[in-house]
Amino acid sequence: MATDLAKPPVQAAPSEPGRASGRVPFRTALRRYRWLYLMLVPGLVYFAVFKYLPMYGLTIAFQDFVPFLGYSGSEWVGFKHFEALFTGPDFGRLMFNTLFLAVLTVLFVFPAPIVVALMLNELRVSVLKRSIQSLIYIPHFLSWAIVASLTYLLLAVDFGVIARFVHDLVGGPKVDYVAQPDWFRPIIIVQTLWKATGWGTIIYLAALAGVNPNLYEAARMDGAGRWRQFWHITLPTIRPTIVVMAILTSGNLLDASFEQIWLMTNSLNRSVADVFDTYVYYIGITQGAFSYSTAVGLFKGVAGALLIFGSNWLAKRLGQRGLF
Amino acid sequence: MKTTPRRLLAGTVALTTALLAAACGGDDAGRQAASNELTMMVPLFGTAPDPKGEVHQAVEKVVGKKLKITWVPNAEYGDKTNVVLASDEIPQVMVVQGKTAAFVQAAQAGAFWELTDRLDKYPNLKAKSEQAELNASINGKVFGIYRVRPLLRSAVLYRKDWLDKLDLKVPETVDELYEVAKAFTEKDPDGNGKKDTYGLIIPKWPTPVFCSSSPYNVIETWFGAPNCYGDRGGRLTPTFDTEEFYTANRWLKKMVDEGLVNPDFATLDSAKWNDPFYQGKGGIIIDVNVRASQMYGLLKEQDPENYGDKLAMGGNLKRSDGQKFSQPFDGYNGFLAVSKQSVRTEAELDDVLKALDRLATKEGQTLLANGIEGRNFKLENGFDVPVNDDDPAVKTINNDVDFAFIQLGTWATIGMGVYEQMPTNEAERENLRIRKELVELDLQTAVHNPALPIVSPTYVSKGAVLDPIVSDARVKYLAGEITEEQLRAEVKRWHESGGDQVVTEINDLHAELGGD
Asked: Can you spell out the DSSP letters for B356-377?
């Protein structure tokens, strides 16, 4: 490594406020760190080409877009599609379903990896710890189609293992779990927990590995028990990670997992299953209502952005370091 | 390793260039095809044929042009159609699978040549059935050469061994169907001493589109409800506005309640529809008659000796008062449309249509639907008899024909217009004979849908929101989640959410067409 690369420009320790050295004029900085800036270029190009340029397509939300006529040929209609969405019969239901799933995600899916990571961290036999960790993140690599098929196999009213167990052995009622609207959300949440928790623990375990062992030693000297150590050392050290993860998650809250929900939807549970993402797919791609579905997607995007800014602001208000 | 800044720079530049190239590439593919070339987009059900393959070469010879075919797997054909319509690379000839909203919008915006009254000049493209051509049109305007399908395909499949064991015969009325379903459920037709069978098998219908020839639609038609739309007091009325619709669903709900229908009818994957039948869990399927061939194949795998005795086929059923109404089909399945963007002038259009006309000759259609005579089949008494099926090259021909090129057939398809394959098994031959008889018989009582040629603008823009209202409510009613009152309320909601406008437009457009 050349010497000037050894000093990355931003190297503030978590506790340090502000930047390390005094302000350097941008030109000087540009010259001094030119190789680093150059390395930034591919990333910027990637975002420009694949994330920002396509946003041009959002204009069709304000048009009656006919693909054949293109962006320039289609008629401009202002906020017609947004009006149709907000006054339409589906909006309330979509909003409720999406938010309900989001709330359940925050309550159950978000804390799960933290809890599991903390529990794994307390394990002292490292072979056990590592094998458990590997085992629980395997489901992450299965596609939703497989998870959905497994669910059907377990829960099918006729031959599903769990359904049969509940009915034949426990003497419970014969329930068609996959068709009951009441069971839809629990199934979705359990599927997500099963698939995502193990993978989610990785980042927290990494954060936990970074805790300075000296702190534990010192605390033990002062007579702190296991619980005290956990409460006063472990948790505060991983708190920044939790906050960053929370802010990032908040932006995706409205992105209910499309594939998962699409695969679990049927005529009987559609009323609770429809969320913005499945609606956009169904209306936009399969029925060709491009403008309308773009309007729905844009609304969702704006709401997601607001959630990120909101939670970032909230984090700062609560005395945590925000994301930006 | 020590990395110098210069080397880093080189890497960065290379990566950036690659990204840019990836972003901007694929621009000049599919530009204006030369006049001796014909570009096409066609659905595919297997692996894409090799352009150097025997069938492709033979088709090129018939057409007299070099063919550039984009084969698109059927499962994603609809999505791909939308994407292609949005791009500026529309092939000259495109198989369009139906009057989807995206296609209708594109056609009305001028993306495709209107072919009304143009096709008569071409002897092989001239519509063989004016009704089918009208059905495939958009409000009377023809935008493609329709791909023919039998006008009637609905039938009922039964487990013959079960009927025989319980001493029952193939039902002719809905009441008899109910009795058979009840016996199949309660009288242990498979003789294993356990009550583990049921009568009717219904899958989760893959689309919430209301008019989709689902078993529900067929049963409603049997009870005298209109086939989607019907003339009631001089006005075209949707099927769920008639009392027959409710009578039919009450009858079906009774069967569901008594356990005569598979309990997972709302969730059973339609790709697994055959499974309960050949595995001996359920005994009745209401669907298209060609499903019988598929089913024979599955039954054969299980029991090569006696599989012929396990399947019986019946036609459409009479309702209790003896009146019979049969469910017909549209008579077409999509069409070949010619793009205005890549075929710019009348002269070019004439050139393309002449090429398609050559493809629509007897020779061409036989090639598309049967294959190459003397290579993969030979003619015997006017029937197609497969030959050399063990030869890998012939297997390729069969695959190319059955899973790909047959999609280009316009007046020939399986069971129509071409040489039919004669099954080797006696039972299957008998089934084929019965199938034809039933089709002729049921056509006499077919209830046609007068609204088929009509495309209502409101339906194009709102159909996706409207359709699931009633189709979901129907399933919920059958499952016992909502009452008949609530089902009627949902129908009312359909009307209020835009359905009323759809009905008005359909009636107006129908009047304009001079409909009877």
From this structure: HHHHTSHHHHHHHHT--BTTTE
Candidates A66, A179, A286; nearest CB to B105: A66
Following DSSP, what letter does each residue of A197-233 receive, concatenated?
HHHHHHHHHHHHHTS-HHHHHHHHHTT--HHHHIIII
State mean pLDDT over B201-226: 91
Structural domain includes residue A96: yes
Nearest to B222 by CA among B258, B172, B262: B172
Question: Nearest Cβ partner of A156 from B19, B264, B465?
Answer: B264
What string of DSSP letters covers B301-329?
Answer: HH-TTTGGGGEEEE---B-TTS-B-B---
Cα dihedral sign, A309-A310-A311-A313: positive
* Beta-strand pair A75-76/B282-288: unpaired
Q: Are strands B93-96 and B37-44 parallel, antiparallel or unpaired?
A: parallel
Residues B68-96, mean pLDDT to the nearest whole number: 87
Residue A5 lies in a domain: no
Per-position DSSP letters for B428-466, written without gaps between them: HHHHHHHHHHHHHHHHTTB---TTTT---HHHHHHHHHH
pLDDT tens per residue across span A293-316? 899 889 988 988 888 888 888 888
A292 vs B contacts (CB less than 8 Å): 461
The alpha carbon of residue B75 is apart from the nearest alpha carbon of chain A, in Å, by 12
Cα(A98)–Cα(A61) distance, integer angstroms: 21
Residues lower than pLDDT 70 in chain A: 1-22
Length of chain A in terms of residues written: 324
Closest residue in B to A284 (Cα) is B464
B374 CB neighbour count, 10 Å cutoff: 10
What CATH number is associated with residue A227? 1.10.3720.10
If you average pLDDT over every residue of chain B, what do you get? Answer: 88
HEC profile for B493-513?
HHHHHHHHHHHHHHHHHHHHC
CA nearest to B112 within chain A: A68
Tell me which architecture the domain covering B37-151+331-419 has in CATH: 3-Layer(aba) Sandwich (3.40)
ipTM above 0.90, yes or no: no
Chain B CB within 8 Å of residue A54 CB: no
Tell me whether residues B263 and A66 touch, CB distance under 8 A. no
Q: Are A288 and B101 in contact (CB under 8 A)?
A: yes
| Domain B37-151+331-419 and domain B154-327+426-512 have a common topology | yes
CA B82 to chain centre: 19
Q: Given an 8 Å threshold on Cβ–Cβ distance, is A38 in contact with B9?
A: yes
- Whole-number CA gyration radius for chain B: 26
Kindly report, residue by residue over B396-434, the tens digit of the pLDDT. 998 999 899 999 999 888 777 778 887 778 888 889 889
Tell me whether residue B81 is exposed, middle or buried, using C-beta atoms within 10 angstroms of its C-beta: 0 to 12, 13 to 18, 19 or more.
buried
Q: In this structure, are residues A256 and A279 in contact, taking their beta carbons and an 8 Å threshold?
A: no
DSSP assignment letter at B46: S
Q: Both tokens of residue A186?
A: 């629990």
The CATH superfamily label for domain B154-327+426-512 reads Periplasmic binding protein-like II (3.40.190.10)
- pLDDT reported for residue A254: 81
With an 8 Å Cβ cutoff, is A72 touching chain B?
Answer: no
Dihedral (CA of B116, B122, B125, B129) sign: positive
Gap between the Cα atoms of A71 and A68, Å rounded: 9
- Structural domain tally of chain A? 1
Give me the torsion for CA of B281, B286, B289, B291, rounded to 10°.
Answer: -40
Q: CB distance B463–A287 less than 8 Å?
A: yes
B267, B482, B486, B496: best mutation site toward chain A, by most A Cβ within 10 Å? B267
Residue B182: partners with Cβ closer than 8 Å, 6 or more residues away: B199, B258, B260
Q: Which of A46, A267, A286 sits opposite B475 (nearest CB)?
A: A267
